[in-house]
Amino acid sequence: MDSILVKGGNTLQGDIPIAGAKNAALTLMPVTLLSDEPLTLTNTPRLSDIKTMTTLLESLGAEVTSLQDGKVLAMSTHGAINTTADYEIVRKMRASNLVLGPLLAREGHAIVSLPGGCAIGARPMDIHTDGLAKMGAQIDLRDGYLHAKADGGKLKGAVIDFPFASVGATENIMMAATLAKGTTVINNAAREPEIVDLATCLRAMGAQIDGDGSPTITIQGVDRLGAATHAVVTDRIELGTYMLAPVIAGGEVTCLGGRIDLLAAFCEKLDAAGVSVTETDAGLKVALRGDRPKAVDVTTEPFPGFPTDLQAQMMAMLCFADGTSVLEEKIFENRFMHAPELVRMGADIDVQGGTATVRGVDMLKGAPVMATDLRASVSLILAGLAAEGETLVNRVYHLDRGYEKVVRKFAGVGANVERVKGQ
Ligand code: EPZ
């Protein structure tokens, strides 16, 4: 397994290109199952998760052609569709569950393996399945697979009240509802930019969707969807990750293509921590105003609140801050696994359940550390940028899932970061 070696101490200067959003691409790709017309995605990130989703869609009968070094995906699903999503593929990536809604809508039946838990939590699918049941799907769990069948072979519109603004459930129900008979209303829907991006793509194909980005989304079912070409929205989590690099290491970096509206709550916290963020034609220019960030408290919430996917990265920055910060993780039950690794580098962090108290220290010391999940991995690289000496981040396959060309992007602005081939 490869590792990433970070030698701390360099200040950063220059531009970092931000890719298309992993979490938008992973819900846009299954859209090809909803139509027998071509769907082309541009600005697609080059990530191992995209390859996993490609393998899954091909196993279901979709044709996926990768063009322009993976930045364009030309997809089409015509002819026979296999409606069973196999455990061997689904277990690798939870987002595989996003084929459930499209398969049910297109074929009236589906067998999708439960993804199983992952490092950050149990991640059940009850909100997805309860919503689809309201639309007339009969769903049984057998041998680790969800067996789903639409009454009469076609889903019906329904009013669905979500107990929690689940991103994946909003995506699955929205996709399923585009071809259902009648109108579907999702109350307490997720409002993430990736939801709006999905709705924009579906509308381009002829879907009738209103309210995306608000807590209430209304979808009027249509008979069929047509062809479309859609550019994947900028990745706000990659953006926020790289915005923290100059805050931790010093210097000034412009994140190309970045927009404040994608990350307003995160930018408010950066402002409170003494970070200047300037919106330019090229993107977001970021630098620390003083010589040390200030402590701030953070609570993760569904969009437009502070994103859980930036909690680990923010903690890495707060390890260096002047003062004590309290981070509350309200979305996932086990998302502080980066904390003990940061403590190995000399951070002062106390975790009690879903709350982490971080007392800023003057300096961290480089050390060999273990990546446990995608966002924890990159938080260790960020900490290594300003740590004294060398930090070796192991198990970087986690990183390859969500950060394209991560070494090149850090090194491109002067960080001393290199990939070390595994034995
Ligand atoms: C999406 O996961 C993202 N993944 C996650 O990003 C992100 O952290 C999460 O949304 C929250 O923003 C993709 O988009 C591929 P949820 P998802 O359904 O859809 C509970 C990353 O690092 N829940 O909003 O799975 C669930 O257990 C990844 O890029 C239920 O209880 O998130 C969790 O505690 C990590 N029942 C909370 O809701 C359900 O049926 C949030 O889940 C569904 C969810």
Structure described in brief:
The chain is an alpha/beta fold. It has 14 helices and 24 strands.
Describe this structure in words.
With 423 residues, the protein is of the alpha/beta class. The protein has 2 domains: 3-18 and 234-420, Alpha-beta prism (UDP-n-acetylglucosamine1-carboxyvinyl-transferase, Chain); 22-231, Alpha-beta prism (UDP-n-acetylglucosamine1-carboxyvinyl-transferase, Chain). 30% of the residues lie in helices and 26% in strands. It has 14 helices and 24 strands. The protein has helices spanning 22-28, 48-59, 87-90, 100-107, 126-134, 167-177, 193-204, 236-249, 264-272, 311-318, 338-344, 374-386, 397-402, 406-411, and strands at residues 3-7, 12-17, 39-42, 63-67, 72-76, 84-85, 109-113, 137-142, 145-150, 159-161, 183-187, 208-210, 216-220, 228-231, 251-256, 275-279, 283-288, 298-299, 324-328, 348-352, 355-359, 368-370, 390-394, 416-420. The chain has a 4-stranded mixed sheet with strand order 22-23-1-24. The chain is elongated and about 65 Å long. Residues 22-23, 26, 94-95, 121, 123-128, 164, 166-169, 308-309, 331-332, 374-375, 402 line the site of ligand EPZ.
